Amino acid sequence: xxxxxxxxxxxxxxxxxxxxxxxxxxxxxxxxxxxxxxxxxxxxxxxxxxxxxxxxxxxxxxxxxxxxxxxxxxxxxxxxxxxxxxxxxxxxxxxxxxxxxxxxxxxxxxxxxxxxxxxxxxxxxxxxxxxxxxxxxxxxxxxxxxxxxxxxxxxxxxxxxxxxxxxxxxxxxxxxxxxxxxxxxxxxxxxxxxxxxxxxxxxxxxxxxxxxxxxxxxxxxxxxxxxxxxxxxxxxxxxxxxxxxxxxxxxxxxxxxxxxxxxxxxxxxxxxxxxxxxxxxxxxxxxxxxxxxxxxxxxxxxxxxxxxxxxxxxxxxxxxxxxxxxxxxxxxxxxxxxxxxxxxxxxxxxxxxxxxxxxxxxxxxxxxxxxxxxxxxxxxxxxxxxxxxxxxxxxxxxxxxxxxxxxxxxxxxxxxxxxxxxxxxxxxxxxxxxxxxxxxxxxxxxxxxxxxxxxxxxxxxxxxxxxxxxxxxxxxxxxxxxxxxxxxxxxxxxxxxxxxxxxxxxxxxxxxxxxxxxxxxxxxxxxxxxxxxxxxxxxxxxxxxxxxxxxxxxxxxxxxxxxxxxxxxxxxxxxxxxxxxxxxxxxxxxxxxxxxxxxxxxxxxxxxx
Length: 609
Ligand SMILES: Nc1ncnc2c1ncn2[C@@H]1O[C@H](COP(=O)(O)OP(=O)(O)OP(=O)(O)O)[C@@H](O)[C@H]1O
Ligand SMILES: CC(=O)C(=O)O
Description:
Layout: H1 3-37, E1 40-42, H2 52-56, E2 60-63, E3 74-77, E4 107-111, H3 119-128, E5 130-136, H4 142-158, E6 164-168, E7 183-185, E8 190-194, E9 205-207, H5 213-216, E10 222-225, E11 230-237, E12 241-248, E13 250-252, E14 258-260, H6 272-284, E15 288-291, H7 297-309, E16 315-320, H8 323-327, H9 329-335, E17 338-342, H10 343-349, H11 355-369, E18 373-376, H12 391-403, E19 407-410, H13 412-415, H14 420-447, H15 474-492, E20 496-499, H16 504-511, E21 518-522, H17 525-531, E22 537-541, H18 548-561, E23 570-575, E24 589-594
Parallel strand pairs: 4-5, 4-19, 5-6, 6-15, 8-9, 15-16, 16-17, 17-18, 18-19, 20-21, 20-23, 21-22
Antiparallel strand pairs: 1-2, 2-3, 7-13, 8-12, 10-11, 10-14, 11-12, 23-24
The protein binds adenosine-5'-triphosphate and pyruvic acid (PYR).
């Protein structure tokens, strides 16, 4: 790039930014007024209502007080929402555009285990708002995981909602072996971990499942059990044994996770068991792989190459949970389809106080790249045994939502906890409340004082990479389209309606975080499930006819039938992407369409109904 070109580009970008600021000013002003006019926030938003009536009777979060940040004013009610699905002409600016429902944008990932593996419990979890069912390959069998995948398929076939499946690999974990009985350990006592097989605790000798353990450990290291519930100082070692002294006391049980603070094990990135599990996932048709203990980009590229050789479109997420993975964060995030902040192991390998910093880095890294990111582990740990969360847990959810995570995850809370549905309801409500408050506070900052810099999640796309004709490339054009569609939708206070075959444009729209929902219609069930993870996107399945207008009308009618839109409301319609569906009929367009009489009353032609 020549110096001149660079200057030109900068000045274009500067002008563009200035214009955009002016436009977003209007956008925010409208949004604040719209939000002030809206006092109800619907929860369990991603379990789509089947009819407008159904939508009306859904649980709502109503604020009797003046602003959504006023938690004391909030009340849960299961009563009918007087606004949902009904005429909603009260929004400001002469626009009758705003949908009355404030739909939750942050998605919920739930680990399925003994507490939630039955048809009844899994369906309840999905109805309560689960968008992704996580299968942890450290537990259960292929048969039990296949049964869960079949249940998710059955749920999706009911048309009640869209749930994706995520297979989480066990990864190269170092574990202690089976014990004859648990060993109580007091501070100062000694113990020996050995690579000799069959040591079950006699003479305080315990086997470890990995020979390289000896080389990975040095005298003076801190050795942790299950992320720190017991800790040891390494005091000596031989060719086969590691001697340790108890620092934090506890009871050592069978097959516990061992790791050395600040060091990653030198195990292969993907173990033989992982490859068998990945093959199982391909055969069973899961939607996402979450790869444990990813160390660098190469392992991602290897799995992606293997997947494409199998003709599989499974998306690959990297779990960032090791000292190695944070060192290689940028190259890993460049290679993956998304990431998980796996705080359990991350907090064992790194000092605990570093975890919030890395959580933020990982979220921002994914947000910059337009890739989905999940925040996981301990989000509502106390709800494994208690029916209500701690205040700190509520704050933790709010922080992840404010930082811009696409999804938040539950582990033991839904796998074996006593209150899985309550845990989902808490995540859902806290996310919803936080999102509503964020939108308002952002606006207040922008139009109020200069006290705090506005939260700026999005930057306008640059006019990067030009095509052979000299203009922006298709990819850059799509990004600009997504950006300007978002600005337009925000200005009119309307949700977005997009048609997509591969999910690219809905993902781009999600990246720009529009104020309202992105209703993404696709004719591919797997693309629909992939989109279930993306922030603010409600993915719906629909056959695309050759007639663009007929398809658009069918989509609007489907949204009306589900209670998402009502007569007189407007939607921002986006037809774009690298391969627009109706290129012959229209190229790239952004339009604002109003819901008319012809969209009312007809039954939805959604494929999943
Ligand atoms: N498919 C399953 N079958 C049985 N139990 C499960 C299953 N999935 C999860 N669990 C239980 O839920 C707990 C929490 O789930 P999570 O996915 O967070 O496990 P984990 O903490 O990664 O596992 P580990 O205990 O191996 O470190 C597990 O420790 C296990 O007891
Ligand atoms: C989710 C997970 O694996 C972790 O937090 O370590």
